[in-house]
Amino acid sequence: VNAGVVAHFARCADADRFRSFDGAVDHGVAFGQCRRPALFVSGDQDGLAPPRAVEALCVAWGGPKRYWGAGAAYGHADLLIGRRASADVHPVIAAWLEEQAPAAPPRAAGR
Question: Is the confidence at residue 111, as pLDDT, over 70?
């Protein structure tokens, strides 16, 4: 990972604010203006985005939202590529995506 990116994330963590690289945009404030559905997922072992931080972002989100905690077996990367992610996490995400998908239009007869 680029050293500048690491330094940026360190500054965000120190300030407890998620800002743009140039500091001009506070993404946490912008979350309240969002109106799209969002699924917030965390793992208890996640040191990059701990559950308390993910829960706070979920509360701040302005649109429809759901929070799901994957539990003690999951860290940050484990949520997507962990040994049990395909059995434990991926189905939750897939089900949520299905809930958000618009209903398919009826098919024309004879097709």
Answer: no
